[in-house]
Amino acid sequence: MAEPSEVWRREDLKKGMRHVLEQTLDERVERYLEVAHQGIVPNHHFAEASSECIDLYRDGYLLSAVMVPQAVTEGIWRFVLERNQVEANRDRPSLAAMLVERKILSPECAEAFGRIWRSFRNDVHHMNPSVDRVPFRELAKRNLIDLATIEREIFGVRFDNGKLVPIQPRYWDLQPDGTTAVFLRNPWVGA
Which of 85, 88, 142, 143 could make an S-S bridge to 69, C-beta 3.0–4.6 Å? Predict the structure, then answer.
C-alpha cells in the first residue's frame, strides 16, 4: 500500500498535468490539424516513430519534432532505395534526381526529402552552438508537412469495397491473400 505522502504526490501530479492539458488543448488541436498526415501506413520498423513525430509536434515538443522526422525520413529513404534495388553510391540530391527521372519518386516527394535533409540536421542532431538560432516551430511544421507528403506518396492507399489497396504495393508487405499489417494513427480522432 502506498504511503499517504506518495498518494498525495500522485494526486498533485495528476492535477497539475490535467491543468496543463486543459490550458494547452486548443493549441495542441491546432498543431495536430496543421499537418494532413497519412492515417494508415504499413507496419514497418519506422511506423511507430513516424507516428510519434505527429504527437511530438501536437504536444509542443518542437526540438524533438524536428529531430525525429529527420531520422524517420532517413529510414524511409533507405527503405525506398532497398525496395527499388538502388545502391546509395552517390550523394542524396543526385540519387533523388535519378529516382525522379526513373519515376520512382515525384518531383514533389524528392523536394520534400531534400527540404528535410537541409533542415539544420547536423546542427540539431549534434547540438552545435548554432542550434540556438534554429526556428523550431516553423521547421517542425515544415518537416511534418514534408514527411506527410513523402508518406502519402510512398504509402498511399485507396479503398475498394472496404478493402485497403496500396497505390504502390512494393512498399507494403502484402501476403499472398492480399492482406498486410498496418499501423493506424490516432484512430479516435479520425486520422
Answer: 143
